[in-house]
Design goal:
The structure is a homodimer of 337-residue chains.
Chain A: H1 2-6, H2 8-18, H3 20-25, E1 33-37, H4 44-53, E2 61-64, E3 77-83, H5 89-100, E4 104-109, H6 112-120, E5 124-127, H7 138-151, H8 159-176, H9 186-194, E6 198-204, H10 207-223, E7 228-232, H11 247-250, E8 253-259, H12 265-278, E9 285-290, H13 296-317, H14 326-336
Parallel strand pairs in A: 1-2, 1-3, 3-4, 4-5, 6-7, 6-8, 8-9
Helix pairs in contact in A: 2-7, 2-8, 4-7, 4-10, 8-13, 9-13, 10-13
Chain lengths: 337, 337
């Protein structure tokens, strides 16, 4: 897992260069809605795209996590079916649904049944390199979706943002990699804060909501710990009231707030007041982590990158291997019975 | 709070009869997208509508929780601005955004600035009775939105489902109300399970995902406890791995799984295997709560109703008043400075 995390910037560069050809083949007709269907690590790229595109794309993007597609999906819908393995049963089911409805379909996968079926059905297939855990392939799974939308004229050119993102990640890993000691390694220090605690990751509607959820799932899968996520400003209307009882458990919650200077200024004000005043007398721990880089894309990936490392270091602190996901394998085997 | 919860079936009936006139005034032009903008208790109705309509509505429904609207909002978008108080600053900001973009706007509110502005701007205003906490007005806030979509030809007739929902809730409250002792009162028994624990509410993509989140926020606001929510099948791809560490805290998590016979059969299978086998050796508590009633709408509201009562009973167990939300008031005051 550490090797895959380290190689995220290379992964993004490779995604741009290797998948250019498949994306060039894609020709969209009129697209009125975009549905990205996937689960878990294969849905993260869709979440990030939805967040990134919310103020840029002329049509709505919906991330679908289930066996069927919403009723509005039709021939004017672009359905991007994402399954890293190509064998996720929910996604294969949703893919069949998309085909039945005559949607414009693109498959993003490393192989499996999805690749075979999409080829046979004559859809564009973006083949990503295999051999990783799906959650370790965030670059391979996100970048082609972004480029597909750009190709379809649904997103402005994002070349410069990708270039900045790669540069920021290369710089960051010099300070986050395993050989860098804790005193200089932010990810190791945050992992220490989370040891023995329940992590609660706060983002904000817009760029960081998605990344907060990514932290939660990486902490679940890599560190095998419970972890939760929520977002501003919504959490100001409910979750902040919920830190009174039971006191002995609230003391064990560590809130990590991901911030971005792309947040709406009132959201930034909300974060300041909530963290500095409203939750000042609650028992939970609190830590703010600002995004790095200038562009929206670089900021998203910078926060994701710290979270990936934090989750792997926390696994080490717990004496666990961050790679296997035994319970998911157990479930899949039983579902296949 | 107990009085408002008790009166939910009457609230739904009143919403149908009292708001008929405002809804009849609404005439939609071509609608390609629907955006419901609101926060906290004022967003719940939109969430429920999105879940309920996912397999019925010919256009996408998006619930927006923030200061601005997505870039695709334009004159072919129906924007429903929901603020129970009429003074939620995020919703007023999003309302102004909708107006600027020439969207088709309807306001749902008990009064405040939103009501004044929407009247002045010549939009349809659905006025709901005031004097409640927003979270206690779920019936008033949900039903008119459902009827608006029906009026616009975007949902099939839902009269029978509403009738069944009201009947189911009337029956349920005979067994859930405060005068019914714990041994016969499911909500009191679930509240006892949650006492001293961290509630984790699991729903499923489709009907119950939204209700699981409603339970979380009601537990936050009424019982002032920490609480979290997640949904099948997504949680099968991450959260289930996260119950290994830290063990002493995992023992304090109580999972309540909301089930519905409208779930996809493979989702139902996933719930069975996850609860019965995959999580069988983890330390967390587990309880399954099936929906009541036959229709989708009745099932959603039946699970919501139990959750509302559970949150209020848990407040009582903690010796707290379920009505005030001091931290939200403190935040609003500071934001107004």
């Amino acid at each position: 897992m550490f090797g895959a995390i380290y190689r995220l910037p290379e992964q993004i560069e490779e995604a741009v260069s290797k998948m250019e050809y498949s994306i060039a083949q894609f020709k969209a007709s009129l697209v009125r809605t975009i549905v990205i269907t996937g689960l878990g690590g294969s849905a993260v790229g869709g979440d990030m795209l939805r967040s990134y595109a919310a103020d840029k794309c002329p049509v709505p993007i919906f991330v679908n996590r289930g066996y069927t597609l919403p009723s509005y999906v039709g021939k004017d819908t672009l359905v991007i079916a994402v399954s890293y393995s190509g064998n996720t049963e929910e996604t294969l089911s949703a893919y069949a649904d998309a085909k039945r409805r005559g949607a414009q379909v693109v498959a993003v996968t490393s192989g499996g049944i999805l690749k075979k079926q999409a080829w046979a059905d004559g859809y564009v297939v973006v083949t990503v390199p295999g051999g990783l855990q799906p959650r370790a392939a965030a670059g391979y799974l996100f970048i082609p979706q972004m480029l597909l939308l750009q190709k379809a004229g649904l997103l402005p050119d994002c070349g410069e943002e990708i270039t900045e993102t790669v540069r920021v990640l290369y710089e960051m890993r010099l300070r986050l990699a395993p050989q860098v000691k804790s005193e200089h390694n932010l990810a190791k220090r945050i992992a220490s804060r989370l040891f023995g605690k329940i992590p609660l990751i706060h983002g904000a509607t817009g760029l960081t909501e998605t990344i907060a959820y990514r932290w939660k799932t990486q902490l679940n899968e890599n560190a095998q710990t419970v972890a939760f996520a929520h977002s501003y400003p919504e959490l100001n209307h409910n979750e902040i009231v919920g830190f009174d009882v039971p006191l002995e458990l609230i003391e064990k919650i560590e809130i990590i707030t991901l911030t971005s200077n792309h947040n709406h200024p009132r959201v930034q004000k909300r974060i300041e007041i909530t963290m500095g005043e409203v939750l000042a007398n609650t028992a939970c721990g609190r830590y703010e982590l600002p995004a790095q880089g200038a562009s929206e894309l670089a900021q998203m990936f910078s926060l994701l990158y710290v979270g990936d490392y934090v989750s792997a270091y926390l696994a080490v602190l717990y004496g666990l291997d961050p790679t296997p996901v035994d319970k998911i394998v157990q479930l899949k085997n039983r579902l296949a019975d």
